[in-house]
Amino acid sequence: MQYIDQINEAADFLRPSFSQPIDLAIILGSGLGPLADQIKAPKIIPYKDIPHFPTSTIAGHAGCLYLGTLGNKTILAMKGRVHYYEGYDMKEVTFPIRVFSKLNIQKLIVTNACGGIRDDLKPGDLAYLTDHFSLFCPSPLRGPNLDEFGPRFCDMSEVYDHEMIKVALDASKTTGITIKPSVYAYFKGPRFETPADIHAYRVMGADTVGMSTVPEAIVARHCDMNVLGLSLITNKAAGLSDQKLSHQEVQEMADLASKKFVTLVTEIIKNL
Ligand code: HPA
């Protein structure tokens, strides 16, 4: 079956679940999972029930869509996402974004846990993406162009939407929760970087590093969606502290900072 037919089949499966337009979709990265519990009267749809939807293999990345209201908004939240390093190709990783576009969702918030490279980005800090590095990210747009979504050569000069960033900064003021600007660098994983990798990234201008977000943001822009990217810094990147890196450390810090991340993002969603 063609990719576009798979997208249509998944969208057709989901459409009857929605009685009203969806204001935005959000991908809940590590630390933001508990936001799903704030959604009122959610309709919960396991990924495995949705035709062609990829299902996560990683601990801490449960796979369900949550559809419901948060604040005054109707939202669709992805609790759990798949990554390239799990063995999926980029078309599979970004499949949900195409389906969201087919469902006429215009706004996307992509969130992640990441390592901090810039000196002031410490474990527990929150950041918004001003841009990203996609140099080492296999292109999710490779292959025949899906003309009905966007052009062959897609402009990437403003991936992260200025208006949405403004709302995030206002939410930061209202809640008193600081967020800092950052350029996020994609790393394929599924290993942490070497200190030399991080040194190179720093010289090139990266502030944070992680293994997600960029593929989804690229495809969302190809679909002409407005994108906001938010990060929770869970550790200093490789070589920048005495500690070795571990998934457990990432998860522990994600859990610790989860409450403030949820508070900030809830305020952002209310005002988008
Ligand atoms: N590197 C890559 N991905 C990550 C990191 C990191 O240091 N921390 C959390 N996700």
Structure, described:
- By secondary structure, the chain is α/β, with parallel strands linked by helices.
- Helix content is 30%, strand content 24%.
- It contains seven helices and nine strands, in the order αββββααββαβαβαβα.
- The chain has helices at residues 3-14, 90-93, 95-102, 162-175, 195-204, 214-222, 247-271, and strands at residues 24-28, 40-46, 64-70, 73-79, 107-116, 126-133, 179-186, 208-210, 226-236.
- It has a five-stranded mixed barrel with strand order 5-8-7-6-9.
- α5 (195-204) links the parallel β7 (179-186) and β8.
- It starts with a helix and ends with a helix.
- The structure holds hypoxanthine.
Beta-strand fraction estimate: 15-25%
Number of helices: 7
Strand order, sheet with most strands? 5-8-7-6-9
Radius of gyration: 17 Å
* Ligand set: hypoxanthine
Morphology: globular
Mean pLDDT value: 95
Write the layout of secondary structure elements.
Layout: H1 3-14, E1 24-28, E2 40-46, E3 64-70, E4 73-79, H2 90-93, H3 95-102, E5 107-116, E6 126-133, H4 162-175, E7 179-186, H5 195-204, E8 208-210, H6 214-222, E9 226-236, H7 247-271
Parallel strand pairs: 1-4, 1-5, 5-9, 6-7, 7-8
Antiparallel strand pairs: 2-3, 3-4, 5-8, 6-9
